[in-house]
Amino acid sequence: MSFVFDVNNSTITGAQAMFKLKTLLVSAGWVVKSSGDGLSAFSSSSDIISSGSGGANGLANTTAWFRIQMPLANSVRREFMIQRNNANTNWIIKYSYSANFTGGSPSATASPTATDSQTLQNGGGAFFSTDSTYRWNAAADNAAPYGFWMGCFPTGGGSPSGGAFCLFPMDSGTFPVADIDPYAIYSSNTSSFIVSDFQSNTKAWIRKGLSNETFVSVGACEVLSSNVVIFPGTSGSTGVGPNPHDGYDNVIAIPFGAYGLTTPWPLGLKGISSFVKWNGSNRTTGDTLSIASSGAKDRITYKDVNLPWNGSTPTI
After folding, report:
1. Most exposed residue of 119, 138, 186, 188, measured as fewest CB within 10 angstroms of its CB?
2. How far apart are CA 310 and CA 290, in angstroms?
3. Threshold 0.85, pTM exceeds
4. Cβ atoms of residues 124 and 115 within 8 Å
């Protein structure tokens, strides 16, 4: 696992953020398979989106889109289809496990379809809560299993409030061998990375490829002791606090599980995340944590969770 980063960006539009995500994922080994600029440029086999601006070959045009494919992992090549709706804040995001976005009648203004497509954002409301008023950070693993995260917080500091999009692989050995899609996808346009939103807006396939397969919300499981929340540490919970031996913050990988489903599969563990972790203490978004060694700044706090960071001092 080796992450590449694009961090400390400010005053960028939603279209620029999505363009930067595309560029970051390509640097991590992903491939843009087809694209359209919402005007007249279209390719059924390559990337014609060259900027996050408006105009020819730009992503800031209504209905501009790109289809991006993950390198081979777990025997398949997963894909996302990302399309700008009627504003830089409004986006359509869809996921294909293996069928890929090769159907429909794609054009400069029409995105392709997939037989196993699942909609994460429908474009009907703002995905980015505002335009050009936030810090944008992102990281992508350039080796299998190729997870990534992106998130925003207001310029000057404050709680995240939209524009969160993450692909979380489940850690090896924590998910059933029969699970052929051991990933959870987080997509949020509201109070991003707070525990309740993280629970309700993280989705995954349950029993993919088996009878009764379903794409549902998977809860991010908290850790409690005598009904007191130990993980995550938030403003509303005690938390476990810094470790008394070395003063470092304790963090814990997040288990994800399906719950509240109807018969015959009422609940079950999806797996334990490979890189997103609960905070052990209540920390301010933008704080860094040093987990690998003192002063490493290898994690960044986003509200109730922490994520891989590149060691720099975050710009607030």
Report:
1. 119
2. 11
3. yes
4. no
